Amino acid sequence: MTTDQALQPAIRVQGIEKSFKDLHVLRGVDFEVPRGGIFALLGSNGAGKTTLVRILSTLLKADAGTATVNGYDVGAEPAGVRGSISLTGQFAAVDDVLTGRENLVLVARLRHLRNHAEIADGLLDSFSLTEAGNRRASTYSGGMRRRLDIAMSLIGNPPVIFLDEPTTGLDPQARLEVWHTVRRLAAQGTTVLLTTQYLDEAEHLADRIAILHQGTIIQNGTLPELKRLLPAATVEYVEKQPSLEDVFLALVGKDS
Fold first, then answer.
1. Are 42 and 209 in contact (CB under 8 A)?
2. Tens-digit pLDDT profile for residues 154-188
3. Which alpha helices (DSSP H) does 57-115 contain, by range?
4. 120-163: per-residue pLDDT in tens?
5. If we measure between CA atoms, which residue out of 27, 40, 14, 45 comes closest to residue 162?
6. Which end of the chain is more exposed for a tag (fewer CB within 10 A), N or C?
């Protein structure tokens, strides 16, 4: 990466549009993600979150607009983008027949990396999966499978990781395990773009939150900035600060 690329935001999206026949999914999306930290893209089902992630990861072409990831143009430099990112989708891409360790070794081999065993063992330790490393992934709990999935996506140390609704279908304990993993990634300097429909997830994890509604970003800011959009309610001298849910519902209305 050049010095100029290092000075740019990790992700820059300008005027992205995407339609599927008569269905207008994205209607001019704009936002920037600074390097490091966690950026949450919050929206209801069908808001276009996954479509946008697929565009940013070069799996889908936008109809209009531009985007850069790690300084590479998504349309003109897809190889550079793919070399800079990892994508974890809504469902874990884990091979149930293989052990956890074998899944990691396989990905390391596919990325043409040396020291496959050392890479696998290091990630098993980092994600608290060492004891389960030699068990088949089919025996893992939902939280363990998701942690393994994220560990697999980190092989090769990509500077940017997309997590598309990573806790969908997980029980509360598994969600907390994934949250801990995401926080640790950001602490290590990885830029995380997290899409979610869960308000508490964005509230607990994100440094910045963008609300995607009807194909556009209607608000973008830190949690305190978003909360200041609504006046605090007071009841008998007790001040109640608005929650992220209050902000979200006030912005998108009841039609979402």
1. yes
2. 898 899 999 999 888 888 888 888 898 899 889 98
3. 78-82, 100-110
4. 999 999 888 999 999 999 999 988 998 899 899 889 889 999 99
5. 40
6. N
Q: Where are the alpha helices (DSSP H) in 40-115?
A: 49-56, 78-82, 100-110
- CATH entry, 3-94+140-255, from 3.40.630.30, 3.40.50.300, 3.90.190.10, 1.10.260.40: 3.40.50.300
* Beta-strand pair 64-69/37-42: unpaired
Residue corresponding to tokens 């940017």: 160
Beta-sheet pairing, 160-164 with 191-196: parallel
Percent helix, strand, coil in the chain (nearest 5)?
35, 25, 35
C-alpha to C-alpha distance for 229 and 63, rounded to whole angstroms: 32
Residue 61 gets which letter from DSSP? -
Segments making up each domain of the chain, as ranges: 3-94+140-255
Q: Which residue in 38, 15, 30 sits closest to 189, CA to CA?
A: 38
* pTM as predicted: 0.84
